[in-house]
Specification:
Distance between the termini: 58 Å
Pfam family, one: PapD_N
Keywords: Chaperone, Fimbrium biogenesis, Immunoglobulin domain, Periplasm, Signal
Subcellular location: Periplasm
Largest sheet: 9 strands, antiparallel
Helix content: under 10%
Radius of gyration: 21 Å
Protein name: Fimbria/pilus periplasmic chaperone
Family: Belongs to the periplasmic pilus chaperone family.
Number of strands: 20
Strand content: over 45%
Order of helices and strands: EEEEEEEEEEEEEEEEEEEE
Shape: globular
């Protein structure tokens, strides 16, 4: 019997065994070129027991009923078994759903690792199913195939000490995914809870919890993830009234 894929992650721990996810996905994101009909994603069982796996795509709502949402891909096989040390390739197939041609679109690939049946005493069991979820970026063929990491100079930055927020405006057709962000005021620094900025939009990111307001902003540093999941580091300097940050040239 399989778990419903719209269910939140299910926890189990076998008290006599340490619990770790065995199944992995190659890469931390999938780039789907607009001139392709399908792409291949590799999954691998790095554990020492067989793994039963269920995969699906969601539209950004991680806990919604996937059977009722509209997504631009189907993934096959949807359920499969992988022997220890072996792998399974997934086919991510574009279903011709209409997507914007002037910007990237995002979906999420989910992989649920269903643990083997436990045959010991029921009182010794608290079961856990491991779920992995990564981003799928659909990149229309009208766009340059280079990633957003090459477009960082187009971003616009502002810091609001009063509300303890950093505002990032993205005028490009690419998504920007941040690994981290830090702003500086002289020798002081504050970490920012940065995430992602969608194409042609603005996102506001909060100062880390309990962070104090700081004085005049003197600079900033950010780390972005490129198409391969590698970190790209960028540095910024203050200009004007200290609230606008511009890329170093």
């Amino acid at each position: 019997m399989f778990y419903k894929i719209n269910t939140a992650v299910i926890f189990f721990i076998l008290l006599s065994t340490s619990s770790m996810a065995a199944m992995t996905i190659s890469g931390t994101r999938v780039i789907f070129p607009g001139d392709e009909k399908e792409v291949t994603v590799r999954t691998t069982n790095k554990g020492d027991t067989p793994a039963l796996v269920q995969v699906w795509v969601d539209d950004g709502n991680a806990n919604a009923d996937v059977n009722s949402m509209k997504v631009p891909y189907m993934v096959t096989p949807p359920v499969y078994r992988v022997e220890p040390g072996k792998g399974q390739s997934l086919r991510l197939i574009y279903n011709n759903m209409v997507l914007p041609k002037d910007r990237e679109s995002i979906s999420w690939l989910n992989m649920l690792e269903i643990p083997p049946a436990y045959k010991g005493p029921a009182k010794d069991r608290l079961e856990l199913a491991f779920r992995t979820r990564i981003k799928i970026f659909y990149r229309p063929k009208a766009l340059d195939k280079s990633s957003s990491a090459s477009q960082t100079e187009d971003l616009k930055w502002a810091v609001d000490n009063g509300s303890k927020k950093v505002k990032v405006t993205n005028p490009t057709p690419y998504y920007f995914s941040f690994d981290s962000m830090t702003i500086y005021s002289g020798s002081k620094s504050v970490n920012i809870d940065a995430d992602m900025v969608a194409p042609f939009s603005t996102s506001e990111f909060d100062f880390e919890k309990n962070a104090p307001a700081i004085g005049n902003v003197t600079g900033a540093e950010f780390k972005l993830l490129n198409d391969y999941g590698a970190i790209i580091v960028g540095k910024l300097k203050a200009s004007g009234n200290g609230l606008t940050l511009e890329n170093y040239k």
